[in-house]
Amino acid sequence: MPAATSPIAYPRPNILLITDDQHRWDFFDDRFVPSLRTPALDRLRREGAVLANTVTNCPICIPTRFTWVHGLYASQAAASLTANRHDWPTDLPTMPQALQRAGYHTALVGKLHSREGLRAIDLLDEEPVTRARGFHDVCEVSGKELAAWYDCRWTAHLRAIGALERYRAEVRESCWAFGGTERGVPTFLAEADSVDGFIGAHARQWLADYDGQEPFFLHASFCGPHNPYDPVRAYAELYDPAAMPAPPGVTDPAAIRHWQRMTALYCGLITQIDTETGRLLDLLDARGWAANTLVVFATDHGDMMGHHNRGTKGPPYDTSIRTPYLLRWPGVIPAGRTLEEMVEAVDLPATLLHAAGLGDDPRAHLPQSPGRSVLDYAVGRRAAHRPWAFSEFCVQEAHGWRLVRERDWKYVRHADGDLLFDLREDPWEFVNRIDDPTQAPRVSRMRGQLIDALAAAPDRGNA
Questions:
Q1: Which domains does the chain have, with CATH numbers?
Q2: What is the DSSP letter of 149?
């Protein structure tokens, strides 16, 4: 296809951004767990496009969400932000602010996670800050682990039904910050009272009630399948642990059984979010909005789920950093396509601004953003997007790393020694090729890419 030679004007759509937390890339469909049920995600793939090689710019909660809103790498604001230990700055422009200026009505329902979590706060007190970041309407929720410290609209609901203290005790038993261990048991809460049931209901209510003349931007931000792995019983019982695949490379029978049990519960959390996603899509249909709504489904990072016998997130492996994006925009984005070019999390805000008619260069609204809109690539007007993508984690700490990933190779500049993986021959990243003399030119080239990534994203001076 020929390269685009001039900007294209897109019709301003409604935008529904659906995100979840810690959703591993190969659990977006049934490729790893053949019995996994995701009919809503299947529908989005069928009716839209999959950006299959999207990479988070930092595989942990706070920094990726910062990137989505501010269009910057976390380290551009504060190096400690790449370790989940820094509040978002309050003086940086945001993507939702730009949408507001363009005439959008904006709303957040669910988890934003702009505050460092190891202290007690009430998110109701923080709503003025969230509104100032560009959201007209706010129903902010803490998340499952953070509910042990935070108050929010969801914990107020749990308090009203007499369930809060029991839930907090349940979470503390599974929360490492309190000295607990991941028990992997279903929650006692009913589906409607679980955090994702609560978020889904409030997102649907917002869509059902919206009667403005302006196009809308709604961010529905779910909290699962983040640990604790505690689906409500109906979803926990969908999957048999004995039928779950063993993590590649794990041979100890007890470890395999542990990860099979966690995988079954993790799948239950994913299927509940898929159910809530399907209900949102059905509501778009019912209101006659589906044809003029850009729907994006994304996650902030993955979950190791036993890969290398590790859990949660943070390592530089694809199970931690790879985060597919699903895009549906009927009549604009061709349906049923899987796109293989590299994409970064920082490209998401650039893409939404482009769709809203604000041009394909996010720096007009988010200065120093390294993001690039994928829209022309997704619609087929451009044949390429990024030849490689950048990610980083805990960059000031002893176990920190930065990496560049191409479609078939990954280079990691790691505090414990550099890594090079051939992703086509070694997709599970067990064989480090860094000392292979035949790969020396590749290592040199990819180190140059890493330098280029850092040079393209100057520090904003807020550290």
A1: 14-384 (3.40.720.10), 392-455 (3.30.1120.10)
A2: T
Q: And the tokens for 360?
A: 């394909």
- Gap between the Cα atoms of 189 and 239, Å rounded: 19
- Distance of CA 295 to CAs 220, 235, 450, 452, Å? 11, 25, 32, 32
Question: Hey, what are 428's tokens?
Answer: 């599970």
- The C-alpha angle 304, 420, 23, rounded to 5 degrees, equals 20
Please give the sequence-ordered ranges of beta strands (E in DSSP) within 56-198, or none if there are none. 105-110, 137-140
3-state secondary structure of 387: coil
Torsion over CA: 317, 319, 320, 325 (sign) = positive
- Buried residues in 251-276 as b, exposed as e (16+ CB within 10 A): eeeeebebbbbbbbbbbbbbbbbbbb
User: In this structure, is the dihedral angle defined by the CA atoms of residues 452, 453, 454 and 460, taken in order, positive or negative?
Assistant: positive
pLDDT tens digits, one per residue of 310-356: 999 999 999 999 999 999 999 999 999 999 999 999 999 999 999 99
Q: Which residue has the tokens 């003399």?
A: 437
In which element (H, E) is residue 423 found?
A: none
The DSSP call for residue 192 is G
Calculate the alpha carbon distances from 318 to 276, 371, 393, 404, 446 in Å.
26, 21, 14, 12, 17
pLDDT digits (tens, 9 = 90+) for 204-262: 999 999 999 999 999 999 999 999 999 999 999 999 999 999 999 999 999 999 999 99
Burial (CB count <10 Å: 0-12, 13-18, 19+), residue 416: exposed
**Residue 459 C-alpha from the chain's centroid:** 23
Which of 441, 407, 282 lies closest to 338 in space, CA to CA?
Answer: 407
- Give the type of residue at 275: T
Q: What is the pTM of this model?
A: 0.96
Amino acid found at 273: I
CA distance 50 to 45: 6
The CA angle 327-333-336, to the nearest 5 degrees, is: 75
